[in-house]
Design goal:
- The protein is mainly α.
- It is built from 15 helices and no strands.
- The protein has helices at 2-6, 25-55, 65-71, 77-81, 103-108, 112-125, 127-136, 142-158, 169-192, 201-216, 228-249, 255-259, 262-272, 278-287, 306-312.
- Helix 8 (142-158) packs antiparallel against helix 9 (169-192) and helix 13 packs antiparallel against helix 14.
- It is elongated, with a radius of gyration of 56 Å.
- The N and C termini lie far apart (167 Å).
């Protein structure tokens, strides 16, 4: 017993003739084989079911399912017409920095007054450009010219002091510069509408009619020295009327003057000017004298008309002085 207890028992695998434990490799291999075969069977069944699901509805045409499945997507119209969307050229990134406006954008920011100032400065600096602008600019019309003159008149009216005497020396000093601006513009526009620069006599007469009305509306100052500008404007306007009347009388025997009622308009302007446009009246009398006669249009007690007075040469013998 002591000898047996003194020698410890050895492990079974240390013995030379010991029986080896059963190998587990074979059963594991068989198990894997069975699992692989089972997976292949399931996959085959799945593929067969997939093919049956998409091919069982189509009638058999002698082509197996693999060929039909491989050819079906390629022949689909949706696949053939589908195009790949490729992004376009990428925009080149530029650095952000300050730069001045281009000329078209700069001109868009200018109002009418600023545009005229810039254009006038350019024309004064480069006279050849000024000549080209004059040739290319549209011809001013009577309404456009009268609008400009009316704007100067509005500026004049707005320059009068509030309250007080509007015809006093103080008021004259306040509005002298706008008054000079209006008279200068009137002196520049009037020759433009006179022959030979203007060939249409009706255009000339229409402008003179509107321009003379503007002179009528100019204030009459208490100091007679300040009225010199208005008197000079009447004198120049009377000469302009005489020139146009003389030229119109050469065309068609003055028919435009007769049937347009211009004889009466000239006589009315002379009345409002207190006889300061007598030169125009005299020229009209001379050119309408070919009609002759001093026929009365009414009864013996009715006053003769302005036209008859013009034809007889008696108009203006006793002009009415208009109170201002």
């Amino acid at each position: 017993m002591d000898g047996l207890l003194a020698t410890p028992p050895a492990a079974p695998h240390l013995f030379a003739n010991a029986r080896l434990s059963p190998s587990r490799s074979a059963p594991v291999s068989n198990h894997n084989t069975k699992m692989n075969s089972r997976k292949r069977k399931v996959e085959d069944d799945g593929e067969d079911g997939y093919q049956d699901r998409y091919t069982s509805r189509e009638p058999s045409s002698g082509v197996d399912g693999d060929e039909r499945m491989s050819a079906s997507p390629a022949g689909s119209p949706a696949i053939s017409s589908r195009q790949l969307i490729r992004p376009g050229n990428k925009r080149v990134k530029t650095s952000v920095t300050g730069r001045p406006l281009t000329l078209p954008r700069l001109l868009e920011t200018l109002d009418a007054a600023a545009m005229r100032t810039v254009l006038r400065n350019v024309c004064e600096t480069h006279p050849d450009i000024g000549t080209e602008v004059v040739n290319m600019a549209p011809r001013p019309t009577v309404p456009s010219a009268l609008d400009v003159l009316n704007s100067y008149e509005s500026t004049l009216r707005g320059s009068f002091p509030f309250g007080g005497n509007p015809t006093s020396d103080y008021a004259y000093n306040r509005v002298r510069q706008p008054l000079m601006d209006l008279l200068d513009a009137l002196g520049d526009f009037t020759p433009h509408f006179l022959p030979p620069n203007e060939t249409q006599m009706m255009t000339s007469l229409s402008f003179l009619d509107g321009a003379t009305d503007i002179i009528h509306r100019l204030p009459k100052w208490d100091n007679n020295l300040h009225n010199h500008h208005k008197d000079l404007a009447y004198e120049e306007m009377s000469k302009a009327w005489a020139l146009v009347v003389k030229e119109a009388a050469k065309r068609g025997g003055g028919i435009q003057l007769q049937y347009g009622g211009w004889d009466q308009k000239v006589a009315k302007h002379n009345d409002e000017a207190a006889g300061k446009m007598q030169t125009a009246v005299n020229e009209l009398t001379v050119n309408l004298g070919w009609m002759g006669g001093n026929q009365s249009s009414g009864g013996a007690g009715e006053p003769t008309s302005i036209r008859q007075q013009l034809l007889s040469g008696t108009y203006g013998a006793n002009p009415h002085v208009r109170a201002w």
